[in-house]
Amino acid sequence: MFGASVVAALAFLSALPALADSAADQARAQQIVVERCSLCHGKEGEAASVVFPRLAGQHAEYVAKQLADFKSGKRKSETMKPQAAELTPAEMQALGVFFESKSVPAKKSRDAALLGVGLYIFSQGNSFSGLPACASCHGEQGHGTPQLPRLAGQHPRYIEDQLKQFNTRERTNDNAVMHTVAAKLTELEAHAVAEYIATLP
């Protein structure tokens, strides 16, 4: 199932126009950000609230795919569907390039014990429950790939919310591996790994 998801993602990416990084494309992207995205995601993709994802530093291809999925309804969101409805594939890609070029500082946490649990789950998984390490797909630093999202620096609340949606099958647009992963996470593990992910630069 993972292989089929990757093939589908690659097919989507191959259908996109070349990276929309020209001055005109980026001017249009910035206009869209100011008019539509900034209220929730911030002008630099830093996110205005912990319930909204940080888009700064996210892979351009991944951003474009998620916008296309919101537009088609493959990824469910009453908020994002109308925002993506009129976007063209070129605009989606330009927005991806815009946000990928931005950066936000990692979060600092004072709960060393909780971070220790999060680090272990992220890097080692849990062999007792069959939980794989997050790093096995998203990389040791959580930077992901064009097909798999960057996790580093993401708001913990947003990470936990997405894990819950994968577990309940409310989110089904990405690879089905996440359904199995989310189902194996305890509430403590999910909270700890989300807190750890937020500290990654």
What does this structure look like?
- The structure is a single chain.
- The protein has 201 residues and is an all-alpha fold.
- The chain has ten helices and no strands.
- The protein has helices at residues 2-15, 23-41, 60-72, 80-84, 89-100, 112-124, 135-138, 156-167, 177-184, 187-198.
- α2 (23-41) crosses α5 (89-100), α3 (60-72) packs across α5 and α8 packs across α9 (177-184).
- The two termini are 31 Å apart.
- The mean pLDDT is 92.
Poorly predicted spans: none
What does the overall shape look like? globular
Largest sheet: none
The share of residues in helices is 55-70%
- Rg, rounded, reads 17 Å
User: Order of helices and strands, N to C?
Assistant: HHHHHHHHHH
Per DSSP, the total helix count is 10
The N- and C-terminal alpha carbons lie at a distance of 31 Å
Average residue pLDDT: 92
What is the SS-derived class?
mainly alpha
Number of strands: 0
What percentage of the residues does DSSP assign to strands (E)? under 5%
Based on the model shown, name its key terms.
single chain; 56% helix; 201 residues; mainly alpha
Give a concise summary:
The protein is 56% helix and 0% strand.
Task: Summarize the helices and strands and which ones pair or pack.
Elements: H1 2-15, H2 23-41, H3 60-72, H4 80-84, H5 89-100, H6 112-124, H7 135-138, H8 156-167, H9 177-184, H10 187-198
